[in-house]
């Protein structure tokens, strides 16, 4: 068996032992544990959604500011070109 295969087998055995010990020494019943896991998953889902929304708003704000800066730079460049063109005439 290659090193990678041994590492994977060790990882899976470690997971199995960890799960077995967790079930053996669980401080709550199965129903309570499932309820806790469900509540934790819902809380995590809400946090991820909130962070995702915040990132979307921040990205939109960044794009809006970039668009505004680009428009301002283009207007300034156009004004400079118009000024130079007027002086060349």
What does this structure look like?
The chain contains 2 helices and no strands. It has 89 residues and is mainly alpha-helical. 0% of the residues are buried. The protein is 91% helix and 0% strand. The chain has one domain (3-88). The chain starts with a helix and ends with a helix. The protein has helices at 3-24, 30-88.
Q: Characteristics of this structure?
A:
single chain, 89 residues, mainly alpha, 2 helices, 0% strand
Give the count of structural domains. 1
| Total DSSP helices | 2
**How many β-strand stretches?**
0
Reported for the largest beta sheet, the result is: none
Spatial gap, N to C terminus: 83 Å
State which percent range the strand residues make up. under 5%
Q: Mean pLDDT across all residues, rounded? A: 89
Instruction: Using the alpha-carbon principal axes, give the shape.
Output: elongated
User: Residue share in helices?
Assistant: over 70%
